[in-house]
């Protein structure tokens, strides 16, 4: 009887093939990671103490960094932002109506919550950009003078500080209402 030649397709070769496949898969997945997006998420910082994740968190921040399809948030929005009651102040405009009209004339309305935040979940509306926005409550109203070009994250343009590239935060009134005014 002749001695048998060692098989090259046994468990050892299969485990090498599996390891090679895992390595290639890992490299492909790593190539799909958007480091710029990861840096944007990190730049937002941690949650505010005492404010749990949810509809009231992170007022004034660019919502679609996390809620825009790349994560890490599980709820995705097509448009979202924060409205403040008075220009230059940090009190939220609670219960304000945000109305957005897209390029095809489709209109969507959202109401701000206790933090001044509003959001439009994907699947509820798919606007055609550019779009226009207006916010109102009672007798106060502000119409956006420029167009929303392609990003529905209001704080991408409406940064905390007004300047050459930002009009500053979205607000409902230029000045506080006089005492006793409706």
Description of the molecule:
This protein is of the alpha+beta class. The protein has a domain at 58-165: Immunoglobulin-like, CATH 2.60.40. The protein is 19% helix and 23% strand. The protein has three helices and seven strands; from the N terminus they run H-H-H-E-E-E-E-E-E-E. It has helices at 11-31, 35-43, 64-67; strands spanning 77-86, 97-102, 107-111, 117-121, 131-137, 140-143, 170-173. The strands form two sheets. Strands 3-2-5-6 form a four-stranded antiparallel beta sheet, with no helix packed on it. A three-stranded mixed beta sheet has the order 4-1-7, with no helix packed on it. A hairpin with a 2-residue loop joins strand 5 and strand 6 (140-143). The longest helix has 21 residues, at 11-31. The radius of gyration is 25 Å and the shape is globular. 25% of the residues are buried.
Helix coverage percent:
10-25%
Strand order across the biggest sheet?
Answer: 3-2-5-6
Average pLDDT metric: 84
Count of strand segments: 7
**Helix-strand makeup class:** alpha+beta
Largest sheet: 4 strands, antiparallel
- In CATH, the topology of one domain is named Immunoglobulin-like
Oligomer: single chain
Low-confidence runs of at least 5 consecutive residues = none
> Shape from CA axes?
globular
Reading the helices and strands in chain order gives HHHEEEEEEE
């Amino acid at each position: 009887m002749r001695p048998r030649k060692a098989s090259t397709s046994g468990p050892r070769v299969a485990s090498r093939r599996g390891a090679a496949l895992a390595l290639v898969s890992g490299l492909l997945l790593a190539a799909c990671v958007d480091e710029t997006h990861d840096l944007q998420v990190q730049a937002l910082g941690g949650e505010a103490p005492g404010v749990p994740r949810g509809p009231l968190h992170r007022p004034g921040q660019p919502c679609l960094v996390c809620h825009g399809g790349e994560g890490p948030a599980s709820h995705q929005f097509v448009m979202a932002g924060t409205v403040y009651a008075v220009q230059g102040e940090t009190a939220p405009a609670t219960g304000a109506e945000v109305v957005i009209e897209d390029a095809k004339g489709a209109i969507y309305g959202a109401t701000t919550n206790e933090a001044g935040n509003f959001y439009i979940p994907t699947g509820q509306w798919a606007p055609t950009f550019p779009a226009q926005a207006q916010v109102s409550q009672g007798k106060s109203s502000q119409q956006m003078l420029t167009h929303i070009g392609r990003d529905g994250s209001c704080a991408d343009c409406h940064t905390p500080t007004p300047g050459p590239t930002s009009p500053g935060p979205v607000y409902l009134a230029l000045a506080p209402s006089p005492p006793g005014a409706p």
